[in-house]
Amino acid sequence: MKSGDQSALAELYDRYSSVVYAVALRVLGDTGAAEDVLQEVFLQLWRNPGAFDSARGSLGAWLAVITRNRAIDALRRRKPETDIEDVIVSVAPDLAGNADRSRAAEKARSVLGTMPAPQRSALEMAYFEGMSHSEIATKTGEPLGTIKTRIRSGLIALRKAFQT
Amino acid sequence: MSVHEQFAEDLALYALNALEGDDRAVLEKHLAACSECRLELEELRGDGALLALSTIGPKPPARARQRLLDAVSKESAPTRAQNARKMGHPSVAPRRSWWRALGWAATAAVIVFAASLWKENAVLRQSLASASAQGVQSARELEDLRKIAAPLIAPEAQRITLVAMKTPPQPQGKAFYLRNRGSLVFMANNMPSLPPQKAYELWLIPIQGAPVPAGTFKPDAHGSATVVNPPLPSGMEAKAFAITVENEAGASTPTMPIMMMGTGE
């Protein structure tokens, strides 16, 4: 065991643990379960740091996506569906700093706030509850095509807000 | 981003793991053959990350950090090597070199921070000393680091950034390159934003021969960007590093004009 490896992990933990924990807690709604996901995500990074391709995106965004996926797996009590090496995330903000992160969170919430309620709801059901489009259609009583359109246009609205 | 329209909505669902059944199978088959749609998938995952990042909440409990470090300590090197062999990997060497590079990146970030924040100089000197002691393995690396860090953190050093009068902040990039290991850490500031389908590409200009791609990057909202350890042939001596604007997927030869360039110091 090289102590340098551990200190690098500790430094990454100090930068990104609040992002990871917040996402896990949002999905799971339980501090103990969120802490378990936090532990699992950083252990995975420790065991396989090469899974993150730094040339393709930012570590903060990648960790947020990995965390969301793992938290959904835990919520649905299923085995992990995707290998972390297969998850490539292309997004600009790195969000290592608290100020950057607060600004990004505020911007994202503002975009969500301007969306029609059914669209925001469909997006949140898919992202934070891990529901499939057919489950959302069944729950809301709306056509599958409508759900698909709402989710895509919601994601694109977020993208555009961060490109300006 | 140009994607095949018939897959546009399914791609968004797939990015959230919300696509199932036949639609999923059909899309996966298409993705295997379509690089444009794979890039769009990465973008959509990034859009999802923005959604994830809209969440704010309490900080994790302090015990979680120690729990992680305890768990990591228990995973001894032999165990990790065994695990790697079980997974079909011959050794854990690449992982270690990645962590070393990451240690370099973290330490380099501390150095840049130290240079820019005069008031926190004392605290950062301690941080850097600690990072140096723990994060760098060999005496040679430590010596390299001290050489780089000394003018940046010495209390008597004056720190002055000169910029042109009445102009916005200029783009600036710093490359840290270890030739014998093919390791590179690059950090940039004040980079102009780019159109959606474009990215900056970093190039290693060797003493002889054609420029070698050294990673693509897109700056964040503040114009900052980092490239850590892009795939590079080891042992290649760099005459200079340069940056061009390329299509998002990157290019194998630079497209003129060269936007930024720097030679070794």
Essential attributes:
heterodimer, A: 164 residues, mainly alpha, 7 helices, globular, B: 265 residues, alpha+beta, Immunoglobulin-like, four-stranded antiparallel beta sheet, 44% helix
Write the layout of secondary structure elements.
The complex is a heterodimer of chains A (164) and B (265).
Chain A lengths: L2 H26 L2 H17 L11 H17 L22 H17 L2 H12 L4 H8 L3 H20 L1
Helix pairs in contact in A: 1-2, 1-3, 2-3, 4-7, 5-7, 6-7
Chain B lengths: L7 H8 L5 H13 L1 H18 L9 H13 L2 H10 L6 H24 L4 H15 L3 H15 L18 E7 L4 E7 L8 E9 L5 E6 L7 E4 L9 E10 L12 E4 L2
Antiparallel strand pairs in B: 1-2, 2-5, 3-4, 3-6, 6-7
Helix pairs in contact in B: 1-3, 6-7, 7-8
Outline the structure in words.
Chain A is an all-alpha fold. Helices cover 71% and strands 0% of the residues of chain A. In chain A, helix 5 (117-128) crosses helix 7 (144-163). The N and C termini of chain A lie far apart (45 Å). The relative contact order of chain A is 0.10. The mean pLDDT of chain A is 84. With 265 residues, chain B is of the alpha+beta class. Chain B has two domains: 5-120, no CATH class; 172-263, Immunoglobulin-like (Sandwich), CATH 2.60.40. Helix content of chain B is 44%, strand content 18%. Chain B has eight helices and seven strands, in the order H-H-H-H-H-H-H-H-E-E-E-E-E-E-E. In chain B, the strands form two sheets. In chain B, strands 4-3-6-7 form a four-stranded antiparallel beta sheet, with no helix packed on it. In chain B, a hairpin with a 5-residue loop joins strand 3 (198-206) and strand 4 (212-217). Chain B is globular, with a radius of gyration of 22 Å. Classes of the chains: A mainly alpha (164), B alpha+beta (265). Chains A and B meet through helix 1, helix 2, helix 3, helix 4 and helix 5 of A and helix 1, helix 3, helix 4, helix 5 and helix 6 of B.
Q: In angstroms, what is the radius of gyration of chain A?
A: 17 Å
Mean pLDDT of chain A: 84
Q: What do the pLDDT scores of chain B average to? A: 74
Instruction: Give the class of chain A from helix and strand content and strand pairing.
Output: mainly alpha
Number of helices in the DSSP assignment of chain B? 8
What oligomeric state best describes the polypeptide chains here?
A: heterodimer
Residues in β-strands, percent of chain A: under 5%
Total strands of chain A: the figure is 0
Number of helices of chain A: 7
- In helices, the fraction of residues of chain A equals over 70%
Structural class by helix and strand composition of chain B: alpha+beta
Q: Whole-Å distance between the termini of chain A?
A: 45 Å
User: How widely separated are the two ends of chain B?
Assistant: 39 Å
Order of helix and strand elements from N to C terminus of chain A: HHHHHHH
- Poorly predicted regions of chain A are none
Q: Biggest sheet of chain A, in brief?
A: none
